[in-house]
Amino acid sequence: MAASVPISKTIYLGAFAHCISLANLEICARGAIGVDEQGLIQFVEKEISSPSDVTTKHPSWASAQIVSVDDGFFFPGFIDTHTHAPQHPNTGLFGKTTLLDWLETYTFPLEASFEDTRKAGRIYGNFVARTLSHGTTTCAYYATRHVEATNLLTEICLERGQRALVGRVCMDRLSPEYYRDADIESAIRDSKACIDYARKVDEKGEIVRPVVTPRFAPSCTAPCLAELGKLAREEGAFVQTHISENTGECELVKEWFPESESYTHVYDEAALLTERTILAHAIHLSKEERRLIKERGSKISHCPASNTALTSGCCPVRELLDEGITVGLGTDVSGGVSPSILEEARHAIWTSRFVAMSAPSAPVATLNNAAKLSTAEALYLATRGGAAVVGLEEKIGGFDVGKEFDAQMIRLGSVPEAGDYEGTFGDEGAGGPVDIFGFESPEEKVEKWVYSGDDRNCAAVWVRGRLVHKTARYKV
Amino acid sequence: MAASVPISKTIYLGAFAHCISLANLEICARGAIGVDEQGLIQFVEKEISSPSDVTTKHPSWASAQIVSVDDGFFFPGFIDTHTHAPQHPNTGLFGKTTLLDWLETYTFPLEASFEDTRKAGRIYGNFVARTLSHGTTTCAYYATRHVEATNLLTEICLERGQRALVGRVCMDRLSPEYYRDADIESAIRDSKACIDYARKVDEKGEIVRPVVTPRFAPSCTAPCLAELGKLAREEGAFVQTHISENTGECELVKEWFPESESYTHVYDEAALLTERTILAHAIHLSKEERRLIKERGSKISHCPASNTALTSGCCPVRELLDEGITVGLGTDVSGGVSPSILEEARHAIWTSRFVAMSAPSAPVATLNNAAKLSTAEALYLATRGGAAVVGLEEKIGGFDVGKEFDAQMIRLGSVPEAGDYEGTFGDEGAGGPVDIFGFESPEEKVEKWVYSGDDRNCAAVWVRGRLVHKTARYKV
Q1: CATH code where residue A280 lies
Q2: CB contact under 8 A, B129 and A469
Q3: Residue to test with chain B: of A285, A354, A366, A436, most B Cβ within 10 A
Q4: Which of B61, B325, B331, B436 is deepest in the core (most CB within 10 A)?
Q5: Where in this chain does the record put each Amidohydrolase-related domain (chains A, B) (predicted)?
Q6: What CATH number corresponds to the domain at position B459?
Q7: Could you tell me which residues are beta bridge partners of residue B74?
Q8: Same domain, B174 and B260
Q9: Cα separation of A124 and A227, whole Å?
């Protein structure tokens, strides 16, 4: 499998960019990153005058392989902290529904069909290839309630070398009878089976880790949630679930958990609110709930594209960040319509602007400029923020000595003097969707990539120094 | 030039889709459209059982050329009712600015550099090729204040065969001295020169038409606006300008035109509010202003992507439509970050959802479902709506007998049984960004294209039956 292929020492030569803090994107136009046989970053040179500079400084790297980029830059791999692999075939199908009728109409019937493992293999194979092609090197996946299909997703991620959290989805109510755990015992037994499988095929969890996955509070009875909390503790496993996405859902939780002080308390009472918990959406939380989440050290996955498509609401991300909560981005396919974290970063920026224009249709809106996310901040959420959400902040998220090399090579091309490409737009090799005229600063090139780039610009992708995706534009 | 190339009678065979009313998207899975040597649609068959069916019904077409699509559908060409061709190199560069500081920082310096005609040629050539590649068959362009560069844009559109309105931008104040019309006389003389040129190279205006283009009220003194109104009337020309985009701009208009009842009245008093007037943005208009626009028969270009990026506001499109105002979509590059009307249609849908969630950060938002645009409605704005905005509703916008054939061939590919494409995502020929699994209905295929498609799916583009763009995926 890709993750354990032996690799040779490699120097990644050329421009690179990464986030060094929430507000600061560092761009080095003439950089060099040395990655050893284990995929660890051994040196980072930020300003070299020539390639020989590097080997003069690091003589033991004289015979290292060179991978260079001259019309773009290296960027850390993206981290998708929340998505549903089985829902991928429903991408773009949602009409005017909101969360609860959307689940009933589109989601449950499709997920239930993953009883068919062959179908699951085709869809999962396709989706993992898609997310990799968009530069996603780590992905927190929801699977379905089926043990066999969930284990297949684990295998595919391991085989392709994409870091993943893979969760078998638990639910003992709300969903239709044809797609529900028969009882708590079987829910726990099946979840345990998926955890065991993941730990068998990847003992140290270097690539794939299991994650305890109650769909969300309305889908699970209180005793079921409590047993899942116990399981997560016993297994030392991550937890992922949804919280406070839709106002109808919030009402349901109030009604079905009358003893609990809040939605957040429902999870806390089941011991599901841990340092290893990823809560998706978190739109309609009270200040008190956010305080509790902060106190417990739980993390939040912000899914703006999905929240807009299903009119769930606008998550006030800036407030979460100001309160010190750890936030990453989630594509939330198929609530979200794209498997691309780059596209999600754009949506995070747009949503922050809608928050800034809080009363959008008022004749004279007063802008709340503080609510706006900058390009740098959106990229931080997509990389270091996401790494912290999935508990890998020591290993990935940026180009630091000692971290593992999870990266993408971004190529941008350049507009020919004649202007057009003689009708070759839309074809491979024609420069992709970003038009670089030659008068852009390094900062402006990154901005252009963020606002108009797509998978065509992602020429190659590495996880732990292993090449896990490339296009015809990647030439060593 | 492409527009006058002789063509042979052609039958476009396969699925097609188009909007037959604001709410209704018609999808014919087994269609045939007959286009004659003039590029006119002579027949539309909505349900054929076999290709021979067509020639049995239309024997004189037995030797016609056949262009067929089997993994997608034909769709009317898109109409972009508002964009700025010279601003294309600034795409993605806007930071956290809003309209007035954005103009000062990014726009005016770039536009001023179009004094250099060689630079203009490169950028215009690139941009026209880009918009064509996204299926835009008609485009309302703002150029700059330079006569020579503006005439070059006219030539390029004519040469490439893209229908266009091309406007020399007028402004006798607000912009810096280095980029301003010296006086009203020269503003009118230069505008007239561009009108004359367009009418010389395309006498009947079949492809390119001139358009009188005051940038917007704050950029023009009242006498200048009045002279431009007079010029438009004398020339029987279209008018395009901006209105009520940003609250700071609205305040400025109030201050600089104290005698006028409203922003809309400023244009009306200058005789610029005509049936041939395209007003971009129209976000913060009063009901009275909208009534006046409706009464004058002026049209509105909705530019949601730009309005979000520059936090200008959310145009309440549903209200405009309910009031009977004609609306189309505009990419508004480089306020907007994409030259694609498909992307703009998505933004129109997202913006309508933000309007629906009118108090986005409130803990319990009440949804205004009536504000949501459907997929069909967004596509209507992108085609028939846009056609009516640019005065071509009798000629283009849908597949009706007697209309000219402006169309795009959408190809979708299909996911192989093995799921992934062996790492070929991002390359040409790998199916593009839309994943079709084979269980989708024709309606669902269109939805998938709208929400995840891009220029890779636009295999070929025709204007008046002439092929004006194709990719390697287009095989006759």
Answers
A1: 3.20.20.140
A2: no
A3: A354
A4: B331
A5: 75-468
A6: 2.30.40.10
A7: B16, B409
A8: yes
A9: 28
